[in-house]
Amino acid sequence: SKYGIKFLKIFKILVNWRNINEENLIEECVMEELEVRKILFEMFRVGFVFLEERSLKKRFVSQSAHFFWSINYERVKKTFFFEIVKSIFFVLLKLEKLNFFFRETWTGKNFSLKFKKFFPTFSHFFFLYDILVLSLSRLDEVL
């Protein structure tokens, strides 16, 4: 969701092809040329793809040069691993904050007033808790 559906579409095509030039990629994507180039250079900026320039002539690069794109698997693996670990950290942080809130309101005065300010019923609290635990287990499965 961070990069978008068009980004994913181009990424899948790059996975299927080992090296692909821009013209073939644009045909495969069925998208506008400018849009494909913007996404490709965003992928290049992030480090997800390699760009290789090949010339038809041996001596120098001319207008007959073609750009070939391929995936940088090492960078993609490191980036996704980092994003998953970061997501796990934030889920754990939210769970800890929720537990702290519950302990503080449970031991303090006016428990029902404090608790109902954030959660209309106990089921809302436990529903949020279950969602966080479920998302944590899903992120663990992805790792």
Chart the SSEs and their pairings.
Elements: H1 5-16, E1 20-21, H2 22-29, H3 33-46, E2 49-54, E3 66-71, H4 73-107, H5 111-118, H6 122-142
Antiparallel strand pairs: 1-3, 2-3
Helix pairs in contact: 4-5, 4-6
What does this structure look like?
By secondary structure, the protein is mostly helical. The chain has 6 helices and 3 strands, in the order H-E-H-H-E-E-H-H-H. It has helices at 5-16, 22-29, 33-46, 73-107, 111-118, 122-142, and strands spanning 20-21, 49-54, 66-71. Strands 1-3-2 form a 3-stranded antiparallel β-sheet. The model has no long low-confidence stretch (mean pLDDT 79).
Rg, alpha carbons = 24 Å
Q: Kindly report the average pLDDT value.
A: 79
What distance lies between the first and last C-alpha atoms, to the nearest angstrom? 18 Å
| Order of secondary-structure elements | HEHHEEHHH
Alpha-beta classification: mainly alpha
Instruction: Find the count of extended strands (DSSP E, 2+ residues).
Output: 3
Q: What is the number of helical segments per DSSP (H or I, 4+ residues)? A: 6
Low-confidence stretches: none
Fraction of residues in helices? Answer: 55-70%
Strand order of the largest sheet: 1-3-2
Strand content: 5-15%
Shape from CA axes? elongated
**Main beta-sheet strand count, sense and barrel state:** 3 strands, antiparallel
Summarize the structure.
The chain has 143 residues and is mainly alpha-helical. 69% of the residues lie in helices and 10% in strands.
Features:
single chain; 143 residues; mainly alpha; three-stranded antiparallel beta sheet; 3 strands; 69% helix; elongated
